[in-house]
Amino acid sequence: MADHKTNKDQRYDRQLRLWGDHGQEALENAHVCLVNAAASGTEILKNLVLPGIGAFTIVDGHRVSGEDVGNNFFLSSDSVGKNRAQATTELLQELNTDVSGNFVEENPDRLLDNDPEFFHRFSLVIAVQLEESTCLRLGSVLWNAAVPFLVCRTYGLVGYMRLVVREHTVVESHPDNALEDLRLDQPFPELTNHITSYDLDNMEKKDHSHTPWVIIVAKYLQKWCREHDFQLPRNYKEKEAFRQLLREGIRKNENGTPEEEENFDEAIKNVNTALNPSKVCVSVEDLFNAEQCENITSQSPAFWVMVRAVRDFVQAEGRGSLPVRGTIPDMIADSDKFISLQNVYRERALQDAAAVSRHVESHLQAVGKVCIWGTLHMWNAAFLRVVHCRALVEEYGVDTVHKDEITSCMDNPDSEMVLYLMLRSVDCFYQQHSRYPGVYNYQVEDDIVRLKLCVHSLLQEYGLTVNVKDDYVHEFCRYGAAEPHTVAAFMGGAAAQEAIKLITHQFVPFNNTFIYNAMAQTSATFQL
Amino acid sequence: MADGEEPMALDVGSSGDWDGRWRHVQKFLERSGPFTHPDFEPSEETLQFLLETCKILVIGAGGLGCELLKNLALSGFRHIHVVDMDTIDVSNLNRQFLFRSKDVGHPKAEVAADFINSRVPGCHVVPHFKKIQEFDESFYRQFHIIVCGLDSIIARRWMNGMLLSLLVYDDGVLDPSSIIPLIDGGTEGFKGNARVILPGMTACIDCTLELYPPQINFPMCTIASMPRLPEHCIEYARILQWPKENTSIPSLLVLMCLPLYGVALDGDNPEHIHWVFQKSLERAAEFNIIGVTYRLTQGVVKRIIPAVASTNAVIAGTVPSRENTALFAYVPLNNYLVFNDVDGLYTYTFEAERKENCSACSQVPQKLQFPPSAKLQEVLEYLTENASLQMKSPAITATLEGKNKTLYLQTVASIEEKTRPNLCKTLKELGLADGQELAVADVTTPQTVLFKLNFTS
């Protein structure tokens, strides 16, 4: 047992460093459904099976064709004629014995007719290369059951992804460039006391040069405030003057030349960082103002109870500020000074987290629930996020379509938005002709005319006054609904990572439409 | 594509192909389109070229390499060579999908080739369980395109230098048939990049050396006497304590980073890591530092870069499109693509520009400017620390009194010992003259780089 765990730790080591053991646990408890085992789909699953997703189920009624084997790595030459769900499950399952692979030899339309609740059991449903009508039906079922839905498509040299989820909460967004939380503009009492304990002017030279820059800036800010009516440096001119003040603080030797004091250099370099106002960021303010935060009931998800508790904290113990983060960046200092400074922040963070916990408990008690907080210490209030992705029926509705977004993007007629409009148009074509345009060579020329009509009727239906260049109509007929493997592979990677974000509630998913242009190697995200 | 069809018998023709096999690819090779390259002509022969003639070299059979091999094989490329000097490790299995637990310890190139050859009939991947440096021009010259999925900047630069050395100039004009395009990809966590290099024509690896962030090395005084982070404690155990307890060489020489004798620390040996972990804990306890874990220890000692399957899939997916050749015949916007999916998905492309005085691809002679009183040590430091050169262990030779003399060479212990005293001598003492040419060899390039020595006052 222990050996297996060590082996798993080794196997998954490189990814555990990204989403941690708790992220991995979430992944291993997830069950994902793939509708259609086309190449795009099996590539997505490959990227979920390899990192150890708990289970997958493939729903596909198709029989494997020679064409399928040509672009799908998870089919072999003796798969032809077999059910595609079954054939691909075998080769995907073999990638990782920790994962449980299942298949249903059924057309999704049939399942939606006979047993729509089949889909309720999944953590996430992913559909690839699915016709529009079935996609909308499935989207509706999943929306009502609050199951996240990821639509993915490879159409010639265009990749498409659409995320449909009522509400997705992100506990750890892991932002790339988060600002430090140093509270130098409004130091908490323990920090002030710690700063006071330093007497810069009377320190030994070695201590002076190894005092953390945070202390130095704090000390000089105190000096500045006394001389500037308790106003912190506000603009560039004042910050420059403050930097000069710091410069003057550098010890000089007998000849009056400034000594080498790297910690002061750091202080001067970090003035902007130090003066970042310690206020609640907009994304968290939005969370506080949300209806789900205001009304905590016994049905409230843990995320919203947490947000409410943080809001309560901000209004009470926090005095307008979030709980202290507790981490500080490395800086030039001797070990003792650095560690004791770090501990001041750390201990305050623990205190604040305890206060938030108490708010959580009181809310849970008020609605008659028991508190099960294992991982409270891991989240960071400033990094909480929530994402809402509209239902498909709203995207497709004539009254609810995001006309402005589409029209303004199309100010540039070569924007990726035109590729979206073309995908919608080929779907119209499919509705009318029960096939996609240009699949066979002899069809290409006539289909260009037919597809152009579809484009016009689509634009008219939605009242979109945009220009779709003929070149794109021609290009989409050229594609003949092909699914080149390299584009499928790209989308497989992109979609799989979004799926992992949804399952682990870490990192922020896209909202809500992603288009990849493999011709120009560009991409764009739209909210439709 | 429709269901309810009769199961087809797979009629494998004499070419090993079956009906419809290449249908997805053919639409791009045999149909014209409004966005293709002006020189592109649709033809049934292009597919034949891919299948029968085109020869591709993939360097690296790891995270990117496995994805590349699969993508190329399913795009019609049949003559593929793959080079990788590594064997398979358990930690590879989360993304290097051509390998299984039973393959641990076996050469990556060989296992990868076997897998592809059996899964994709007709594809003939030839493995080479070797270092790239073990091949010469005659090997590399046979390929139409070279694709790199390497994890080392040094290796990339070497490859870059090799392809530059293949270029043929007729009366100062570059012969285009001597150009072998190099496509280079890299990933790290949720970030990746892919670039196209046409040696002699577009920016090479060395032209944009600053794009590669320098490795984080903590200052020695922090590690030795003022640790603050758990990483400092680990580096203390690795750099200072291990050599002390595992070799007989005095620690002074350790600090000079000279080659050692004795048991080297092996990041893949769990016992070694465990030793470093314990020592790091002790060090951390001394200074009240928290956060030393086994995982962190391993990460610091092995310089581990986090990795997942999805990022490798994305970057490898861009590569065949970046080839500018038969495959899709489009002209990508720019030669350098960047990808990041930490927050949503983000791609960005730009045109990397050639550097006028690039030490690798420009024909501009490199200069070294030093006073005659400068010590050879200073020249060595310049070669390694200068941002545009970033050499690793340069070997410096000069022609003195008509003979080729090695001034300093690090990579062979006996020669290092013999030439070490030269480091403390001045350029004048070594007999070097103003305008003298120095030849410098280094792992970052297969060819010697010539420098001209200019004495400053």
TrEMBL record, chain A:
GO terms for biological process: protein neddylation. It comes from the Eukaryota. Pathway: Protein modification; protein neddylation. This is NEDD8-activating enzyme E1 regulatory subunit. GO terms for cellular component: cytoplasm. Keywords: Ubl conjugation pathway. The gene is NAE1. Regulatory subunit of the dimeric UBA3-NAE1 E1 enzyme. E1 activates NEDD8 by first adenylating its C-terminal glycine residue with ATP, thereafter linking this residue to the side chain of the catalytic cysteine, yielding a NEDD8-UBA3 thioester and free AMP. E1 finally transfers NEDD8 to the catalytic cysteine of UBE2M. Residues 12-522 form the THIF-type NAD/FAD binding fold domain. One of its GO terms (molecular function) is NEDD8 activating enzyme activity. Belongs to the ubiquitin-activating E1 family. ULA1 subfamily. InterPro entries: APP-BP1, ThiF/MoeB/HesA, ThiF_NAD_FAD-bd, Ubiquitin-activating_enz. The keyword Metal-binding does not apply.
Automatic annotation (TrEMBL), chain B:
The keyword Iron does not apply. The keyword tRNA processing does not apply. One of its GO terms (cellular component) is nucleus. InterPro entries: E2-binding (IPR014929), ThiF/MoeB/HesA (IPR045886), ThiF_NAD_FAD-bd (IPR000594), Ub_act_enz_dom_a_sf (IPR023318), Uba3_N (IPR030468), Ubiquitin-activating_enz (IPR035985), UBQ-activ_enz_E1_Cys_AS (IPR033127). PANTHER family: NEDD8-ACTIVATING ENZYME E1 CATALYTIC SUBUNIT, UBIQUITIN-ACTIVATING ENZYME E1. The active site is at C221 (glycyl thioester intermediate). One of its GO terms (biological process) is protein neddylation. It catalyses: ATP + [NEDD8 protein] + [E1 NEDD8-activating enzyme]-L-cysteine = AMP + diphosphate + [E1 NEDD8-activating enzyme]-S-[NEDD8 protein]-yl-L-cysteine. This is NEDD8-activating enzyme E1 catalytic subunit. GO terms for molecular function: ATP binding; NEDD8 activating enzyme activity. Pathway: Protein modification; protein neddylation. Belongs to the ubiquitin-activating E1 family. UBA3 subfamily. It is an enzyme of class 6 (ligase). Keywords: ATP-binding, Ligase, Nucleotide-binding, Ubl conjugation pathway. PROSITE patterns: UBIQUITIN_ACTIVAT_2 (PS00865). Residues 368-456 form the E2 binding domain. Coiled coil: none annotated. It comes from Electrophorus electricus. Its EC number is 6.2.1.64.
